[in-house]
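Comment on both lines for my students:
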Amino acid sequence: MKAQKTEPARMPEYRISESESMQYKLLYQIRMGNMSTSELDKLQFLCKSELHQLRSELDTMLQELRDMNKQMQQGKNENHTEKDKESIAA
């Protein structure tokens, strides 16, 4: 049975987590008190959404790694079984 490759959720072209300069600018604005409550709420929503999407991508990658590991382990087990049969036949 082959594992189906699932596509990660589509991400917006821009991610806060990919731009250190944007992170520093946001930190500065927050520390200086330059952001309104509604701007902070919007930022919190964007961060939560991005975190959810990143977690989903990570879950997908982890499942792919688990599937690859399982296939490798099955291949090793099959290889050992063949060697055992050959040594018994010899």
Summary: The mean pLDDT is 83. Residues 16-89 form one domain.
